Amino acid sequence: MKVGLGTVQFGLDYGISNPRGQVPEDEVARILQVARRAGVQVLDTAFEYGSSEEVLGRHLTVADRFRIVTKTPGVRSAHVSTDDARRLRTSFLLSLKRLGRAQVYGLLAHHAPDLLAEGGQILYAEMAALKREGLVQKIGASVYTGRQLDALLSRFAIDLVQLPLNVLDQRLLADGTLGRLRAAGVEIHARSVFLQGLLLMEPGRLDTRFSTVKDHLSQYHAFLGRAGVDPVRAALGFVASVPEVDQIIVGVVDAEQLQQVLDAAARPPLDASELACFAWHDESILDPSRWRPAREITGQACA
Predict the structure, then answer these.
(1) Segments forming the whole domain that contains residue 7
(2) What is 131-194 written as a DSSP string?
(3) Cβ distance 178 to 186 under 8 Å?
């Protein structure tokens, strides 16, 4: 099963298309049951995802075989110190306690620039020590750009990366980054497959923050209508067609939504080349942390 379950909604009110807020714990239990039955392998969480780790810890069982990936709290400083490395270890051990696990599959630097800052090697050394101690199998980073990845790979041995990939955000596919990662033996987890639900929403419902991309998304939805492909299947099918991707991390707000995603993912992948012309290049749209009224730009349109 190539679909992994993102759990930020289990601990925070998250997502532009999520009007219901944080997922109630009884619904989390139902979501996890659907994931178990379907053979979902990866659960993605983070120290900074509110109560997500604690919620998972209360609903996972000793029999569960999920591969859990969590993330470090961000340092977000130009200078990394030994105190930051100690906090990384302390927070990671707390993550294990919250999750009720003796070890996890992956530990990612949540804020990749922390590793690239002055003294970033101190953080990496602490992550590597946790790996040597058998507390985590793979270490790496959550990244946003090919530049970040190239800088990380030039300095550190990276086992696992999480990166954005979707119909609008094709940067790391187009510039060959995914191919370079695969050649280096790095495991790739794709996130933002639905771009926080933006790709699933009717363009007419979008507010002024998305005025620059609204017409482009209208063309995209019109294309899907002509092709007879629903937006969920299109978003998943595009990423599933990229052979370098090992896991597609998706977030859901209820068990029915997860089942819809799994049903769509079970269908044959799409031809990514057919959707290449829907790539967008304004990072104020591609990066949800920057969502605010953006300058007008011109994007390439599909026929």
Answers:
(1) 3-202+230-274
(2) HHTTSEEEEEEE-S-HHHHHHHHHHS---EEEEE--SS--HHHHTSHHHHHHHTT-EEEEE-SS
(3) no
Q: Which residue has the tokens 């099918």?
A: 237
- How far apart, in whole angstroms, are the C-alpha atoms of residue 9 and residue 253? 7
Task: Give a yes or no: residue 291 inside a domain.
Answer: no
What pLDDT band is residue 110 in, cutting at 50, 70 and 90?
very high
Per residue in 38-54, pLDDT tens?
999 999 999 999 999 99
Q: Is 211 part of any domain? A: no
The number of angstroms, rounded, from the C-alpha of 52 to the middle of its chain's C-alpha atoms is 15
CATH number for the domain harbouring residue 236: 3.20.20.100
pLDDT band, very low/low/confident/very high, at 14 (cuts 50, 70, 90):
low
Give 180's contacts (C-beta < 8 A, 6+ positions apart): 149, 150, 153
Q: State how many domains the chain has.
A: 1
Distance CA 252, CA 137 (A): 26
- Rounded Cα distance between 238 and 147, Å, is 23
Alpha-carbon gap, residue 32 to 142, rounded angstroms? 24
Question: Phi, psi at residue 36, to the nearest 5°?
Answer: -60, -50
Q: Model's pTM, two decimal places?
A: 0.92
Task: Say if 300 falls within a structural domain.
Answer: no
Alpha-carbon distance of 162 to 140, in angstroms, equals: 8
**Per-residue pLDDT reduced to its tens digit, 150-182:** 999 999 999 999 999 999 999 999 999 999 999
- Assess if residue 43 is contained within a domain: yes
Which of 129, 2, 24, 137 minimizes the C-alpha distance to 70? Answer: 137
